[in-house]
Write a structure and sequence with these properties.
Largest sheet: none
Number of helices: 5
Radius of gyration: 32 Å
Distance between the termini: 77 Å
Shape: elongated
Structural class: mainly alpha
Helix content: 55-70%
Order of helices and strands: HHHHH
Length: about 100
């Protein structure tokens, strides 16, 4: 009983030491409990810059006059729709609220 049990404990300790050394050498993260860890996601390369390069740069956003004119057009269109009764409903008076009250 004593000899076999001692061998198991000794081999487990050696294996644990090897695993720790391997993790230290190769820069791996130890997870002896086996729980889910976000380390895999944090290790990934960031790809936001790459995605941003797919889209052309919008020159209009630099010019405040263009932005002001677009905002004015949007407000005038909204005012025209409100006068015709087609504007957006007040908060809590929309289609979903009407459906809930039936």
């Amino acid at each position: 009983m004593g000899s076999g049990n001692l061998k198991k404990i000794l081999s487990a300790a050696i294996n644990e030491g090897v695993v720790e050394a391997r993790a230290r050498i190769f820069g791996h993260q130890l997870n002896p409990s086996g729980l889910k860890s976000p380390h895999k996601i944090l290790r990934m390369k960031l790809f936001g810059e790459k995605v941003a390069q797919w889209y052309p740069y919008d020159i209009k956003k630099d010019d405040p006059l263009v932005m002001a004119r677009e905002e004015q057009e949007r407000l005038s269109k909204l005012e025209m729709l409100k006068r015709r009764g087609k504007g957006p409903p007040k908060k809590g008076q929309g289609r979903r609220a009407a459906k809930r009250n039936k």
